[in-house]
Amino acid sequence: MSQYLLRRLLIALPSLLGISVVLFTILALAPGDPFEELATNPAIPPEVREALRVKFGLDDPVWTRYFRWLTAMLQGDWGFSFASRVDVDELILGRVPTTLIVIGSSQLLALLVALPVGVIAATRPYSIFDQIANTLAFIGFSLPTFFTGLLLILVFSIYLDWLPFVYRADVPGSGWPWLWEHIKQAIMPVLVLGLFQGASMTRYVRSATLDVIRLDYVTTARSKGLRERVVIVKHVVRNSLIPVVTLVALQMPAVFGGAIVTEQIFRVPGIGSLLISAILANDTPVIMGVTFVFAILVILFNLIADVLYGWLDPRISYR
Amino acid sequence: MSATGTGERLLDIRGLKTHFKTDDGWVHAVDGVDIALDAGETLGVVGESGCGKTITAMSTLKLIPMPPGRIVAGQILWRGRDIVPLTSDEMRSIRAKEIAIVFQEPMTSLNPVYTVGDQIGEVIRQHEGLNKKQTLDRTIEMLRLVHIPNPERRVNDYPHQFSGGMRQRVMIAMALSCNPKLLIADEPTTALDVTIQAQILELLAEMKSKLGMAVMLITHAMGVVAETCQRVVVMYAGKVVEEAPVRELFRNPRHPYTQGLIRSIPRIDLAAVKKTRLEAIGGVVPRLIDPAPGCRFAARCRFAKGICSEATPELREVAPGHKVACVLA
Ligand SMILES: Nc1ncnc2c1ncn2[C@@H]1O[C@H](COP(=O)(O)OP(=O)(O)OP(=O)(O)O)[C@@H](O)[C@H]1O
Ligand code: SF4
Ligand SMILES: [Mg+2]
Question: Which tens digit of pLDDT belongs to each residue from A174-192?
Fold first, then answer.
């Protein structure tokens, strides 16, 4: 198992490196840079502009800039945000926890919905429960998050005025009221993301469970006189989770993409909304930093998936 | 009544009908089967592919998926008590503890994500109320009984670390771990290599002599039946067409289908180890969806007459312990 993990880790590093090369090149080739504004500003003489460009090495070849960025990044220097006038790492680190909390809880919610609903639906295929679950799941992943998000805001924030529609990272106070404020503002984004994820996950769980439930070893388990609950939970679910883990891991980039939209709708001050504002401001170091953090997170979740995979299926870690 | 067992009537299947609902109609997979079995007896059930052997066995443990399956008629008396009306939950105390089953496919019958020790121990804990240590000891003892080398180490291995023959040994160990009164072996060797087949049959015979349970051996191979069974039931298209003590059946087969089966053996001396598929008889098995009345073998029978397709011939006793369903007999 530890050998298997080590192998996975060793694969993760070159992938990260590759991603950073691609990201850097694309950003370098993209039109517009942070000095564009200076270029059109008549108050700044061309010599000053030129001196600044040289100072920041903006006109060096791409690969020189890439290696400069890489060595600096490895030393913990992620660059400077021209727009916000803070270090990029500080800016990102301040916002990562919010994103992780929102995404983490929504994935948890998705799992809590999808697992029982998918499994119960699969044990009673074409029953009323199954059909209702299927319909809801279909609706759930057909509705885009920006639509459900706005709908929730309309109902719960504007119409009923129960929940705040702006997410604040710096809620005042402490103790229970503070926690309650946090929960209240997280409810809607988590619900929107979680149910969207949960809908497609339910379908995965259902079909994976249906595939497993008719296998020979499930009949063997029944022939042993085990309780039906034990047959399902021990012998069916563990096996049907194997493909689900893979699918969920493959979906992670889409999850982060969805999180960017959701953060935008609910004004959640996470790295998703940071990315959007950085793009609007042409703030290249921040764009680079945030996308790279997204890449790290996706690879991290894939590693977690690999660990789960190895734990669920002993054949994997023995290979 | 057969005099071959050691007494008590264990299993008495009467007029069992198990049907399956499909898009094309109801499949009469098992359509009026009578099988009786005494304690300690070895009964062979033969018949070609699709004749309903597995469905009969699965019905006996109520393992038929419902829906689409349904037991539409008949009784299954287990030690005098009809188990057809029992719920799946009520069946749990009979499964593995009183009637155990070994399936055809050792490669897929074990759960790949648990060790064999876990899967055997699970049955023992379920029925015997032993603690962890005792369960482990019993598991190792069972593995040793079925001749798996190094059982102390092998308990912690996963199914994929065993060969097909070894997995079937594990399945047999699992089935016998609670000392069942009846072991149903559903073509336990069909999926295995020729040399391994003989070893597994030998193991079954050894287990039977050591533990004394009754065995219902489902097979395609007439040779296996001749060697291991005391009594034989021949099935055709969901029905029992002949039943007799093994010698009587081979000497004096009365049903044209049985005669065909037996005629297809002699050329193969290795019948015991080879897959003697019974397709040697010309023609195909009739549709099992809403079958027409009359003898189901009529389309392939050399002796078929007009009356054969009028009414289904009843299973009648023609000699002591010898029953045949044919108008000629
Ligand atoms: N779930 C099902 N739905 C519809 N028909 C079924 C179903 N299960 C079994 N059958 C039918 O029941 C009949 C009997 O099947 P069964 O598995 O008992 O045959 P068998 O005698 O064990 O054959 P084999 O020697 O190939 O194992 C077959 O014709 C099969 O098509
Ligand atoms: S009843 Fe008729 S068709 Fe059927 S086996 Fe006997 S002779 Fe042949
Ligand atoms: Mg079968």
Answer: 778 778 877 888 888 899 8
